[in-house]
Amino acid sequence: MFRYLALVWQPDIVHQEQDANRLAVELLASSSSWNIVMRARGLQVLCAGAPSGSLRIHSMHDDCGVVLGALFHRSTSLAGVTTQVDALDEHTTRLILESRGEHLIGHYWGNYVAFFCEPRSGTRWVLNDPCGLLPCLITRSGGVTIVFSCIADCVRLGLKFSPSLVYVREHALSGGRNQTASSLEGISRVYGGERLEFRADAPATSHARALLWNPMRFAAHADELEQPEQAARMVRNTVRACTHAWVSSHGSVVHRLSGGLDSSIVLGCLRDAPSKPEITACTYFEPDARSDERPWARQVAQFVGCKHVEIALNPQRVRLKSLPPLQPTIQPTNALHLLWRVDFERSLIKRCSATAVFTGLGGDSGFCGDSKAFAVVDYLQRHGPRLSAVRVAGHVAHALQLTQWYVLLRSLMIWLAGPRMRDQRQAITEASQLVSREVRESIAELERFPHPWFHDCPDVPWAVIRRLGELPYHPEFYDPSLDPDASVEEIVSPLYSQPAIELFLRIPLYTHFLGGRDRGLARRAFRGDVPHAILDREWKDRAPGYAERLVEANVHYLREMLLDGLLVRERILDRDALEQALSPSAFRSTAYPGEILRHLDTELWLRAWHAGSR
To answer: Which residue in 17, 167, 184, 512 has the most C-beta neighbors within 10 A?
Structure first.
């Protein structure tokens, strides 16, 4: 696995430099995959895992810095062709240093973390990619600050961590949304587009933070791309360019094809990539389910002309207790998805000699399928109460199966009063029926959305937050079922690429909702790249009842893990409600299978850290 660990200390403080050197020596001794990729006064950067695919080491001129991960050139227009970076020459290095990293964000994109320094002043900077998933976390050891990507490497160094009870309470309530606390005591996160600055005359444990990228800047100019034809053309060109850039480093890839619109769009873009990769599409399905996505997925695979593999997922045969031992993780891992990868996807990847897995993640949010309820509010904010707002309200009402006047009145109220956290509290509490009353009531204390991207917003910009999908929530990057030194495929979601995200935000919600259709603009943009049957369909054949049958098949294990687990012991879960939900007679009426599985993930994570501390 590609990962890094950087050590920052105050120059000329001898004992700090000795501590940093000791940690570097221990890390190098822990595995032969580690190498030192940068040395400077008060800074040492180590990298592990052979560069593979788009994840590489990009050294700056004259050892002034290093960019770790995927790095692509940004064209002068959002719709231009983009290519992978080979080298950062003297001119580029100077621009990065003079701008203190802003040049990287404005002229490049990818999935990277950058370390660079100014030799004369001794100032050092760390910059996290705005939309990349490569983690950037910080902790301390004595007077040394450690910037790292994989918590397992810190554990190897003997550093001790414990879960934050505040985080666990928030995670149980919202499933990782609206988080305000760090997951582990003593660790904090460097957010997307955030820069840390370490001055030579200040302790390494003291640093300045600055956000160089903010999604609100792009959403504020959404009226620039209000016309559907221009917006559709730019969406198609940008998504294709990003997809082609990501796949250019891979000869063989696996693509998760659900049969829905978003994964079909990505596969359509892969079809004519200049690098001509070998593509194997895989579709998961439940045998004997009332609905089936396979016919739709088959149409797309045949249209593209790629190999297609169908993988059966029978909930009655899934055994949650068979989950392999996991490496330490920064947050709870989705056990069910991990089992699917361990049992099915990994063997397929090996058979295909694939070096990357592509997904359509980010489409529901980026193409605004998740935020169409805010289309009228978005229109009112840009144009005021015009008669045409009634037409937009009619489209939203039809999509949400509400009355037109209810949607219009509700939107007017939000527009006049401003959206607040309370607008989402009911949805959060309804999805957390097994959490104790004390924890559920704690959500009333939260008035602002906690992510620093939105700290300066007078209201809670739900329309923008929903359009960002998983980006604010720091999803797991590493596979915890594998040793950190194992070779692993790259997971790529082109719709989360920085140029695509910025473009999606610049297009008004009501333009995305073109013609009153869910993801209507995307459907127009990708005519010719996706079969007409997929473009015309506005529903998805999901497998209803899968989670319920999975819980039923694993009820004894779930009772054993949860009823007397750490979450109950800490009074985070209501034991009586959990007992009722896990009783055999409750499955079709009072059980909450998605919530039960989410709490299992958290329980497993807590137990792993408690066992490690002992």
So the answer is: 512
Residue 458: is it exposed, middle or buried by C-beta count within 10 angstroms (0-12/13-18/19+)? exposed
**Inside any domain, residue 413:** yes
- Residue 81's nearest CA partner among 310, 263, 248 is 248
Asked whether residue 406 falls in the same domain as residue 532, the answer is: no
Q: Does 484 lie in the same domain as 443?
A: no
pLDDT at 542: 58
What token pair was written down for 68? 């770790």
Q: Can you tell me the distance from the alpha carbon of 167 to that of 20, in angstroms, rounded to the nearest whole number?
A: 30
With a CB cutoff of 8 Å and minimum separation 6, the contacts of 361 are: 262, 469, 470, 493, 495, 496
Residues in contact with 590: Cβ distance below 8 Å, sequence separation at least 6, in sequence order: 580, 581
**Which strands make up the sheet holding 278-285, listed edge to edge?**
307-312, 278-285, 252-256, 356-358, 490-492
**Cα(38)–Cα(60) distance, integer angstroms:** 10
Same structural domain, 168 and 283 = no
Cα gap 434→452, rounded to integer Å: 30
Name the residue type at position 326.
L
Q: Are residues 15 and 71 in the same domain?
A: yes
Supply 379's token pair: 């229109």
- In terms of domains, do 550 and 586 share one? yes
Q: Distance between CA 247 and CA 53 in Å, rounded?
A: 8
Q: Is 54 helix (H, G, I), strand (E, B) or coil?
A: coil
Q: Domain check: are 504 and 572 in the same one?
A: no
Of 440, 467, 494, the residue that ends a domain is 467
Whole-angstrom Cα distance, residue 537 to residue 297?
Answer: 13
Q: Scanning the structure block, which residue is given the tokens 């939105």?
A: 454
The structure's pTM equals 0.93
Residues 6 or more apart whose Cβ sits within 8 Å of residue 447 = 420, 421
Enter the tokens of residue 5.
């660990």
Q: How far apart are CA 298 and CA 193, in angstroms?
A: 39
472 part of a folded domain:
no
278-310 pLDDT, tens digit per residue, is: 999 999 988 877 778 899 999 999 999 999 999
**Is 158 found in the same domain as 42?**
yes
Enter the tokens of residue 204: 């390494």
What does the pLDDT average to over 359-378?
Answer: 93
- What local confidence, expressed as pLDDT, does residue 21 receive? 94
Query: What pLDDT score does 392 carry?
Result: 92
Q: 50-61: per-residue pLDDT in tens?
A: 777 889 999 999
Percent above pLDDT 70 for the chain? 94
Measured between alpha carbons, how far is 64 from 41 in angstroms, rounded to an integer? 11
Count the domains in the chain: 4
- End-of-domain residue from the set 410, 443, 467: 467
Residue 75 DSSP one-character state: P
Instruction: Return the pLDDT at 443.
Output: 65
Helix (H) or strand (E) holding 18, with range, is helix 14-30
The pLDDT, as a whole number, for residue 614 is 47
In a domain, 572, yes or no: yes
Within a domain: 391: yes
Please report, to the nearest 10 degrees, the dihedral formed by the alpha carbons of residues 338, 340, 343, 348 taken in order. Answer: -110
Residue 277: which domain range? 217-365+480-536
Rounded CA gap, 268 and 530, in Å? 6
Q: Which residue has the tokens 């993801």?
A: 519
CA 456 to chain CA centroid, Å, is 23
